Amino acid sequence: MATYDELRSRIETLVDPGFKKTLKEVDGIKKLTVGPTGVVEVELYFSKPGGPEEQKFKIDLIKLVKIELGFPGIKVIFSKSEYVDQDVKQIKYLGIASGKGGVGKSTVTANLAVALTRLGKKVGIIDADIYGASIPQILKVDIKPLGGTEDDLMIPLIGEGIEVISTEFFMPRDKPIMWRGPMLGKMLSHYFGGVKWADDTDYVLIDLPPGTGDVALDINKFAQHTKMLIVTTPHPNAAHVAVKAGLGAQQIGHDVVGVVENMSYFLNSCSNKREYIFGSGGGNSVANTLGVQLLSQIPIGQPTEGKYVYQKNEPAGIIYDNLASQVIDLLD
Ligand SMILES: Nc1ncnc2c1ncn2[C@@H]1O[C@H](COP(=O)(O)OP(=O)(O)OP(=O)(O)O)[C@@H](O)[C@H]1O
C-alpha cells in the first residue's frame, strides 16, 4: 500500500475533463483521508459533477487507488468546482422562470436571445421546459439528429442564429412526457455538462419549466451562479405565483436580476391608448416584493406577419432591445 503523500500526489495528477487541467492545477482535492482499515475517503471539486464525465473519472480514480496503489477501498464525493479558468471565456447563465405556465416565458426567452444577438452577443438557449418545450418552434429550428464532438459533447442545433438544445430533440414527436423530478435533474446535468456551445458564447438562457420546484434547485447544483429573470403577467394570480418562484430562487442563492411583465397592455391602434386587458400592477408588485427592478412591460401582440420573433423596428422589438441592454449590464 502506498504512503499518504504518494496517494495525494498521484491523485493530483489526474486530469479534470472539463478544465483539461490536473486536480493540482485546479485545486480539486477538497479533503483526502485514509481510515484505520486503509479505506481512502476523498472529496473532490469537479467541473461536471453528476454527468457521464464523473462516472468515467471515478472509474479511473478507483483503478489508480485500488489497483496501482494497493488501497483496499475508496469512497468518493464530488461537488461542483468553483475554479475559474482565466484562459477560457466564461459563459454566463440566465434562467427564465415563472410561477405559472402560459405567461410567455418561452416567448420572452426566445425574443430576449434574438435581441441580445442583435446587440452583438453570442447566445445559446437550454430549453428545459420539458412539459411545454416550444423554443425550437419559436426560433424555427430545423430538428434533425444532433452531432457530437470527439469527447462526446452534443452539438446544439441553430435557429435565428441562436444555438439551441431542447428536450424536444430527444422525444418522439407528438407524444406526451410524464417525468418525475429526478429524471429532470438527470436531463439538466446533460444540458449543463454535455453541450459544446460555440467558443465565443457569451450567454446561455435557460427556459425553465413553470413552477417553483425541483429544477431551480437542480440548476443551483450545476451552475451555482445562475442568475434569474422572473416573467409574470399583470394579473394578480400570475404575480402571486411568480413571487413564489422568485423567492424560492433567492432562498437557494440565485441572484434574481429583475422582472419582465408580459402581455402588459394592448395598444389600441384607433385610439392610440393602452388597454389593460389582463389588469395591471402584477409586474410592479412582483418586483417590489423581490426587491428588484421591473425591467420591461411587453404589450400584447404578435410579431409582424410571417415572423415568429419580433423584429428590431417594431414596438415590441424595440422593448426587447432595451431589455437586452439592461440584461447585459446586469450580467456583466
Ligand atoms: N406579448 C404577447 N402577446 C401575445 N401573445 C403572446 C405574448 N407572449 C406570449 N404570447 C403567446 O402566449 C402563448 C404562451 O406563450 P409561451 O409558450 O411563451 O408561454 P410559457 O410561459 O412559456 O408557457 P409554458 O411554460 O406553459 O410553456 C403562446 O401562444 C404565445 O405566442
TrEMBL record:
Gene3D superfamilies: P-loop containing nucleotide triphosphate hydrolases (3.40.50.300). SUPFAM superfamilies: Fe-S cluster assembly (FSCA) domain-like (SSF117916), P-loop containing nucleoside triphosphate hydrolases (SSF52540). It comes from the Bacteria. One of its GO terms (molecular function) is ATP-dependent FeS chaperone activity. Keywords: ATP-binding, Hydrolase, Iron, Iron-sulfur, Metal-binding, Nucleotide-binding. GO terms for biological process: iron-sulfur cluster assembly. ATP binds at G99, K100, G101, G102, V103, G104, K105, S106. PANTHER family: IRON-SULFUR PROTEIN NUBPL. Binds and transfers iron-sulfur (Fe-S) clusters to target apoproteins. Can hydrolyze ATP. Homodimer. Belongs to the Mrp/NBP35 ATP-binding proteins family. This is Iron-sulfur cluster carrier protein. It comes from Acholeplasma brassicae. The lineage of its organism: Bacteria, Bacillati, Mycoplasmatota, Mollicutes, Acholeplasmatales.
